[in-house]
Amino acid sequence: MDINVRETFLKISKKLTNGLLLGQKLMTMDLVIGIDIGGTKTKIGLVDREGNCLIKKNFRTREYPDLNAYLDQAKGVVDSLLGELDVEANILGCGIGAPNASSKKGTIENAANLLWKGSTPILERFREKMPMPMRIMNDASAAALGEMLFGNGRNMTDFIIVTLGTGFGAGIVANGQLIDGYDGFAGELGHIDMTIGDGRMTGLGVPGGLEAYVSATGLKRTIMFMQSKYMDDSRFRDISYNGLHGEEITKAAEEGDPIALKAFDFTAKIMAQALANFTAFTQPEAFILMGGLMQSGKWLTDPLKVYFEEFLLDVYKGKVKIMTSGMPGKDAAICGAAALIWENHR
């Protein structure tokens, strides 16, 4: 080996070895901060160009009713994530998905499942804590953008994202464009009055609203309703509403609990009717479902697909798919938020 080449090789090897021993970050990677503000949890992660969430953490949103304390907690989580990375991060910006978020005003306005009421200037306040390029959008619309960039929507021009968590959200893509709306609030389909059954109120006071039935919270309410309507034995007769969790309902369905099975069927039928109605105004190629309620799997989706075909107009039958997100389930909301920044760096 030429002596100059050998010396150069030894210098590089020594630098690499010393860097590894000292814990130095030897690579630089473009990343985006994705923040999903949910009614139950806030999820924060660092997302690369391909839509991979490299590292993430979460905390309970409701433990921070004071906005300033919430922002300090969020910034602390971001700093912690950056400190734990094995690479040097070049942060291109921060994308935020939140319920009732206006992409035009940078505000969250009267969100049903958040403690901050009125018009909250969330984007302005976040920029004070973390000065960088930043965008905010309704969480379901952000998820739709993420699906366009990273998921099953990459080869579609018409689809509707449905997020099933604490509430019901929707993000609409038509003719290859995200439908954001005049004021940034398009897609609030969870508060459409379906004039259903007992007329439950949504968090925004809509009687018979879809979200009050089709959501993780709605499923819990349906369990209580089914117990009052039917006399079947069920494990839920010894559990209070506040002690009830979604995974227990799924487990009960797997064990053949009649109240759980009735609750899933009831939820699926209402959801199918709503999706059939939504089909008529944009004719999507697919409804892409995501969120915590989707962990119930076939207990919701199997009856949903059957009822959906029944409710569709003949002209749409057999043409509209119901599918799950192409983004990793637990990271989908974070990646959707990050897509708000990655959209401008493709």
H/E topology pattern: HEEEHEEEEHEHEEEHHHEHEH
Number of domains: 2
Task: Assign a percent range to the helix content.
Answer: 25-40%
CATH class of the largest domain: Alpha Beta
Q: Provide the spatial order of strands within the biggest beta sheet.
A: 3-2-1-4-8
CATH topology of the largest domain: Nucleotidyltransferase, domain 5
Instruction: List low-pLDDT spans.
Output: 3-22
Shape: globular
Number of helices: 9
The CATH architecture of the largest domain comes to 2-Layer Sandwich
Q: What is the arithmetic mean of pLDDT? A: 89
Estimated structural class: alpha/beta
Notes on the protein architecture:
The chain is α/β, with parallel strands linked by helices. It has two domains: 133 residues, ATPase, nucleotide binding domain (Nucleotidyltransferase, domain 5); 170 residues, ATPase, nucleotide binding domain (Nucleotidyltransferase, domain 5, 2-Layer Sandwich). A five-stranded mixed beta sheet has the order 3-2-1-4-8, sandwiched between helices. A five-stranded mixed beta sheet has the order 11-10-9-12-13, with helices on one face. It has a three-stranded antiparallel beta sheet with strand order 5-6-7. Helix 8 links the parallel strand 12 and strand 13. Helix 4 crosses helix 9, helix 5 packs across helix 7 and helix 7 crosses helix 8. The longest helix has 25 residues. The two termini are 43 Å apart.
